[in-house]
Every structure is written in structure tokens, then in C-alpha cells.
Amino acid sequence: MNQVLPDILARPLGEARGRLAAAGFARVEIKTARAPGQGAPPPGCEVRVARVKLIGETVELVVVETRSEPVRQGAP
Asked: DSSP 3-state assignment of 18?
């Protein structure tokens, strides 16, 4: 069975898991990436998908904790 992965890159983890479930992907492995020597994330961070890999029937997600920032409007 060929399934197409939904667009989940850079999305919040909860939203990504919901999209995967809706697309029929039941097996999801989650790994957390953190820079060496990085302590606890600062307050206001959220978990987002940094990498997606399909291995057989399992979707592997690598997630990072990143600061939530509003989307810029226009050029910087």
C-alpha cells in the first residue's frame, strides 16, 4: 500500500500526529533532538516536527523544542 505523507514538517507535534492519524498512519515513533549542552528550554517553547522519515509502515518524527514566534508580516 502506497500512502502519501501529509505535510507536517515544522508543524506542532499535536497537529502533526492528528494529520498522520487522519491519513491512516498508526505507527509513529518520536525522537527529540537537542543541541549538546543545551539545558531546559526557555518558557513559551513548543514542540515542532524537524524531520520526517517513513520506514516501512512506521513514521519516524524528530522533534525540537522551539520558541513560538508570530509570523512576520512583510519584509524585515
From this structure: helix
Render pLDDT for 11-46 as a digit per residue (tens, 0 to 9).
Answer: 999 999 999 999 999 999 999 998 777 777 777 789
Domain assignment present for residue 56? The answer is yes
What's the pLDDT at 37? 74
Average pLDDT over residues 50-72: 87
Distance CA 51, CA 61 (A): 6
Number of separate domains in the chain: 1
According to DSSP, the residues that pair with 66 across neighbouring strands are: 46
Residue 8 covered by a domain: no
Q: 11 CB contacts (<8 Å, ≥6 apart)?
A: 19, 48, 49
Residue 1 lies in a domain: no
- Going by C-alpha positions, the residue among 63, 64, 13, 65 that lies closest to residue 43 is 65
Length of the chain in terms of residues written:
76
